[in-house]
Structures are given as C-alpha cells and as structure tokens.
Write a structure and sequence with these properties.
237 residues; alpha+beta; 2 domains; nine-stranded mixed beta sheet; two-stranded antiparallel sheet; 13 strands; 35% helix; disordered N terminus
C-alpha cells in the first residue's frame, strides 16, 4: 500500500509538471498577442477619428408629396457629404409630385439632373457606375412657383424637352434634347455644365415670367466657385 501511495504521488507531480510546461509554452505567446491587440486598437481608433471628421448631412423625405428636401446650407464648404434617399419605387405612380430634367455627359461619364420639387430646385450629377455623384447648385422656391413650372412643362410646348416619364418614379421626367455636348480638345474636355444649366433655368423663368416670380441664378464665375458636394444615394431611404 505504501508503495502504491508513493507511485500515485509521483504520478500527480509528473502531471503538474507537464501542465506547467504546457502553460509555459503558451505564456511565451502572450507578448505577441498583446502587441497585435494594441496595433488593432490603434487602427480602429484612427479609422473612427477619420469617419468622425467628415461632416455628413441628410435630406429629409416629404411623405405627403414624396420628394427629398435638401438642407439649404448643404453647399457650405464645411460639409463633406450628402446622403439623399431614392425616389424610385416598385409600384406604379400616376401622380407625379416633382420634376427632373436630365441630359447625358461624356465628360463625367454619367448625366446631370435639374430637379424641381414643390420647395426646391437643385442640380446634381447621377451615375450608373462607381463614379461619385455631386450636388452643384440649389435654391428654395415656393408652391406657387412650382405649380407654374409644372403646368408649363407639362404642356411640353418646348422643342428642347422630350417627355421620358416612367411609371416607377414620383417624378415627371424630361430629357434635355438640345443640350451642349462636351468636346475633347488638346488640353482636355470642355465643360458645358453651366451653359446647359443656364439654358434650362431660362426655360423655367419663361414659365414664371407672367407671374413675375423669376428665379435668379449665379453667373458663370460664381457658379464655378461653388464647391460641389459629394452625394450618396440611399436606395432604401
């Protein structure tokens, strides 16, 4: 019995020794793990600081007239990004609450849209590719101006616009037919964004002339000095 007890005691000591040896092997990796965790923490903190340094603003959705309202101070230089919801839906819409006039652009590999809502007019670029969208200009209008513009454009007497309205949208859509196209020159592409914008705003002011409700627009120099705001379309917004 005494011999058996001694054998059990020695076996217990051997097991403890083996356990401590294995733990010692694991302990040597602890400094490496701590260094990796520290590096990961620094990386995450730096990413968070970068994200927090961006000033992002959001459009507000009008549930009555079904359009996006952009904050009037969106084009301040301090803003970095605009998140705006989509106005395209998966059902037929017969009552169009807002208007868009678009034209293609080879220069930006996308298109421009002049959007007219009951409270605003704004100019944006739209892409069906990874190129970034931007807000270039905006102004507030009132309901009377909007109704005058809508009635005038809906009559579609202008040869410069072609009605391209689709069912799955809250907007009445027009293609600007007689737009000025960009041309590639030796020193790069010409930029006709302002020319087309000014032409369309001229058509809109014709709609407002009888009521003396004209909308003023910037000259070319002031327009080009506006810092375009990067715009992200929230398809679920």
């Amino acid at each position: 019995m005494e011999i058996k007890n001694k054998l059990l005691s020695w076996r217990s000591k051997i097991n403890k020794f083996e356990m401590n040896r294995e733990m010692g092997k694991n302990f040597k990796y602890i400094p490496i793990i701590l260094i990796l965790l520290f590096g990961l923490t620094v990386l995450l903190k730096s990413q968070k600081v970068y994200c927090n340094s961006l000033k992002v603003i959001y459009s507000q959705y009008d549930t009555i007239d079904n359009y996006q309202f952009i904050p009037i101070d969106a084009l301040l230089d301090s803003n970095d990004m605009l998140i705006i919801g989509s106005e395209y839906v998966t059902k037929h819409i017969t009552d169009k609450k807002s208007i868009e006039i678009f034209w293609p652009s080879t220069y930006i590999d996308g298109s421009y849209e002049l959007v007219i809502t009951p409270k605003q007019i704004y100019l944006v670029s739209i892409h069906e590719n990874p190129n970034p969208n931007h807000l270039y200009w905006m102004t507030n209008i009132n309901r009377e101006q909007f109704e005058l513009i809508k009635a005038c454009l809906s009559s579609n007497k202008s040869k410069q616009l072609k009605d391209c309205t689709i069912e799955y949208s809250y907007r009445q859509s027009f293609r600007f037919v007689q737009f000025i196209e960009e041309v590639y020159m030796e020193n790069g592409w010409t930029n006709s964004r302002y020319d087309n914008f000014a032409e369309l705003m001229g058509l809109i002011n014709i709609c407002l002339r009888s009521a003396n409700k004209l909308i003023s627009i910037p000259n070319r120099v002031d327009f080009d000095n506006i810092k375009p705001l990067k715009m992200v379309i929230d398809r679920d917004g």
